[in-house]
Amino acid sequence: MVYSVKHMAFYRFTPATPAEPVQEKDHRLERLKFHVNTGDYFPMLATILGFLEETVQECKCGLTAEIVPVETKVVRDVRKDLSYLHHNYEIVPKKAKKKGLFFSRTVR
Question: Buried-most residue among 1, 33, 42, 96 (CB within 10 A)?
């Protein structure tokens, strides 16, 4: 699945807090469950990190020239890890795992 900037703007990059309205928290969890159930949670995270990487490279946000390449390498490595996880694993609820409903994919 390919995500656009408009699609990603729909996401809030702030964690849920006790002060977060219940409706917004439910909506966030609904989106999370959707991506887990459709099997594209890892690619979605990689896409978000890609947008953050582009932002760091474009604005530099007061970062020194030495830090930007280090940060972008970390983001690229994490994106590669997420791609590996997407192709070799799937997320299974802990309850299903405890009941023996866990089916892992073969690691390539």
Answer: 42
The Cα 66–Cα 12 span in angstroms is 29
Distance CA 44, CA 90 (A): 14
The residue written with tokens 């439910």 in the block is 26
Q: How far apart are the first and last CA of the chain?
A: 22
Measured between alpha carbons, how far is residue 47 from residues 21, 66, 99, 100 in Å?
Answer: 26, 24, 33, 32
**pTM, entire model:** 0.61
In this structure, what token pair is assigned to residue 23? 């409706």
Question: What is the C-alpha to C-alpha distance for residues 74 and 53, in angstroms, rounded to an integer?
Answer: 10
pLDDT tens for each residue of 44-86: 999 999 998 888 777 766 666 677 788 888 899 999 999 999 9
Interior angle at CA 49, CA 95 and CA 1, nearest 5? 70
62 token code pair: 């007061």
